[in-house]
Amino acid sequence: MKWEVVIGLETHVQLATRSKIFSASSTQYGAEPNTQANEVDMALPGTLPVLNKAAVECAIRFGLAVKGHIAPRSIFARKNYFYPDLPKNYQISQYEIPVVSGGIIHCMVDGEPRQFELTRAHLEEDAGKSIHENFLDPVTGMACSGIDLNRAGTPLLEIVSEPNMRSAAEAVAYAKALHALVVWLGICDGNMQEGSFRIDANVSVRPFGQKEFGTRTETKNVNSFRFLERAILYEVERQIDILESGGKIIQETRLYDADRDETRSMRSKEDAHDYRYFPDPDLPPLVITSDWIERVKAEMPELPQDLRQRLVEQYGLSEADAEQICQSRATAAYFEEMVTNLPQGQAKLAANWLMGEVAATLNREEIAIEQSPVAAKALAGLLARIIDGTISNKIARDVFAQMWQSGERADAIIESKGLKQISDTGAIAAMIDEVLAQHQAIVEEYRAGKQKAFNSLVGQVMKLAKGKANPAQVNELLKQRLDG
Hints:
Number of domains: 3
Strand content: 15-25%
Distance between the termini: 65 Å
Oligomer: single chain
Number of helices: 15
Number of strands: 17
Radius of gyration: 30 Å
Shape: elongated
Structural class: alpha+beta
Helix content: 25-40%
Mean pLDDT: 92
C-alpha cells in the first residue's frame, strides 16, 4: 500500500456518579424524559454550577491508572456553540489545562503487547438528547422533534489519544483495553448501548513517508467495537478513493450508518477557535492536593497489567491465560477465590474450567460472571472431586450443568445420582475382560499395529462402565492386558 492510515480516538466515558457533574440531579438511566433535569441543568437565570467531588475522584483514579500527570490546578472553560439540547448554548468543559495530561494504555494487538499514548483526559458535562424519529406533538399530533434534558449535565471524562494508531485493528484493541480499564476502575459501567462509552474516530490518510498529517474527518458517537472497525475501514477506503481520483478531503464531522455500513457527512468540522473558549466565571479553578491523590491511590484496585504479571509469577499461568482471566475484575476475583479453595498447584485446572465450561455457559445465558448461580467456592468443590479421583472430567461437566440449574453442591449431586468414579482395579479388570472377549476383531486390529483400535476398546470399556470408570486406570490396565 502507498497510503498510511493515521487514527486518533476521542472517547466520552460517562462517570459512575449518582448525581450530575454540576447539579444534584440523578444520573440514573431510563427515566421518563425531563424528569431528571433541575434548574441548573435547564440553565434557568440565577443558577450556579457546583462541582461534583466524586467526578473529580474518578478522573484522579484514571490518571493514576494510566500513569498520567494529574494537574494540581486545572481550569473549567465555556465551549460555546448552539444546539437545542444544550440550554445554556455553551458546554462546561476543560480546555487549556485538563485534569489529566499524558498517560499510557496497554493492550494486545494480534497477540503482541502494545501501548498507546494519551494526550489528555478532561472533565466536562454531557448535552441533552434530541428526539426526531416517531415523535408526535402531544397537542396537534403532528410530527416534530422533542428534547430530553435528562442527560444534560451528566459527568463525562473525555479521553483523547495521540494520533498514533495505524490500523482499524489497533484502534479496536486500544478501545477495548480502555473500556476494560474504566470498568475495572469502577469509574464507568461501560454500557455502550446506553451511551456510557462513546467513541469519536479521527481518521486521515497520507502517502507513506510524508511527515505531515492528511486532512482528518471525525466519525462521531460510535457505540460498538464492531461498528468502530467498520466505520474506520469505510472511511479509509473513502478517503483513498477521493485522493486517488484527484479530489481533496474536507475536514468534517461524519456519522456511521450501521444499516448501510457507511459514514455520511453531518456538518463541517469546527476548530478550537470556533468554540470561543474562555474560563468559566462561575467556577473556581479545580485544585487537587497531593494528599487527595494519596487518598484515592490508597483505594485503588490492583491494576490489570499488575495482576496479569502476578498471576503468571504466583500461579505459573501462561501469558495468554492471564490475559483472558484479567478481561474483567470480577472474572479475576472469581479465579482467585477458586484457587484459594483448591490444593496447591491446581491453578491451571481452575483456569481451564473458568475459560471453558464457565465462560461458555455465561455466554449462552448472556449473563455476567457476577450473576453466575455457581459461586467460585462451589466450583472449587467440584474440581476437588476431579482432583481426588471421585469423578472424571467428563462426569464433572454433567455435575456442573446440574449445579447451574439447581444450585446444589457438587457432593450432593454426585451422591444422589451415584456418579462416583469406579476406581476398583478388580472391577475395571473384569469389565476389560468382558470387552476383550466380545470384540476379538478389534483386539486383532490393535495387535496388527492399528493404534486407533486401542481407543475403540477404551470407549467400549467406558460404555460398559456407564462413563464411571477411572479413565487413567482403564488405559493402564487395558494396555497391560493387551501387551502382556
